[in-house]
Design a protein that fits this description.
The chain is mainly α and about 300 residues long. It contains 15 helices and no strands.
Length: about 300
């Protein structure tokens, strides 16, 4: 039983489950704060939460001194660039389109891994799984309808480009974390420091592009901020640990991210008033589930 709880599959699903609750928390938090300021504060606090769990601060300090450029590079791509592009992109693109592009992140991660890692090629089996999963994402998102009337065509295309680049930044960030396993840097310490640096960078940049009104808000803001900070701390720590495990491939691990919109939709139905499941959304979830079952079945068959 204990071995199953420590398995890569269980911990990957747990991390994705935590990330899926972010949709509701972000929706509440953005009612009070601007996007980049909220994200910067969230990730900075997440990093501080993880910092308290670091086993050896002396080792972390030595790791930072020896490999500061590694910490900085991962913080830049995995937090600063990813979430700067993400929040700017969603302001230009309709919700359904955003969901489809962000939901297709495993494909972009697989492409980045295919190009940058010799032992993580995009196979036909993996590509087929990803296509089925993306089809499920499309069905879930189409319920909201694709609408190009909210912004100009130029604005829509710019937003789509930003979201695609955000996916690529996420994929490259995952590859960087996986490659640093040979440096023997603590995954928990790496997660903590990169979140602190990335979150601080996001907040500083937000001061130049968003109005700042202080931190005097009602309690729902602080409740959502605390939960988002906690889930980011837990999920990123788990994810960085898994990326550093021997034999774990970046593209294989990221396929589990297909379940994030599934859990996200379920939590929305349970928490947000007037959110109810539809036939299209249920059908999309079936396709996502099918892609994961098929992929894992083929993986086990390959082992035997």
């Amino acid at each position: 039983m204990l071995s199953k709880l420590k398995s890569t599959t269980f911990l990957a699903v747990l991390a994705c489950l935590l990330w899926s609750t972010a949709f509701v928390g972000i929706k509440i938090g953005l009612e009070y704060s601007s996007p980049m300021q909220f994200a910067g504060t969230r990730f900075f606090l997440s990093g501080l939460m993880i910092l308290s769990l670091v086993a050896s601060w002396k080792r972390l300090w030595l790791d930072i001194k020896r490999h500061f450029r590694v910490f900085l590079k991962i913080a830049f791509f995995q937090t600063f660039v990813l979430y700067t592009l993400f929040y700017q992109g969603i302001n230009l693109v309709e919700g359904a389109t955003t969901a489809i592009i962000i939901g297709s992140q495993p494909l972009f991660t697989s492409l980045v891994a295919h190009i940058t890692m010799k032992n993580d090629l995009l196979t036909l089996r993996k590509f087929r799984t990803i296509v089925i999963g993306i089809l499920g994402i499309v069905l879930v998102a189409l319920e909201k309808g694709l609408n190009l009337s909210g912004n100009s065509l130029y604005g829509q295309l710019l937003g789509i480009g930003m979201l695609v680049l955000a996916n690529l930044a996420s994929g490259y960030g995952n590859v960087l974390v996986s490659k640093q396993s040979e440096l023997n840097i603590s995954p928990v310490g790496l997660s903590s420091v990169q979140l602190i640096i990335g979150g601080l960078g996001l907040f500083v940049v937000s001061l130049f592009v968003e109005p700042f009104h202080g931190f005097v808000f009602e309690w729902p803001y602080y409740a959502s901020l605390f939960w988002l900070s906690f889930l980011s701390a837990a999920a990123f720590s788990l994810w960085f640990t898994l990326l550093n495990r021997p034999g774990v491939k970046v593209s294989d691990l990221n396929i589990w991210k297909f379940i994030i919109p599934v859990f996200g939709a379920i939590f929305s139905w349970l928490i947000i008033p007037d959110e109810v499941p539809t036939v299209l959304q249920i059908s999309g979830m079936v396709f996502i589930g099918l892609s994961l079952i098929l992929y894992n079945f083929q993986n086990r068959k390959k082992k035997f």
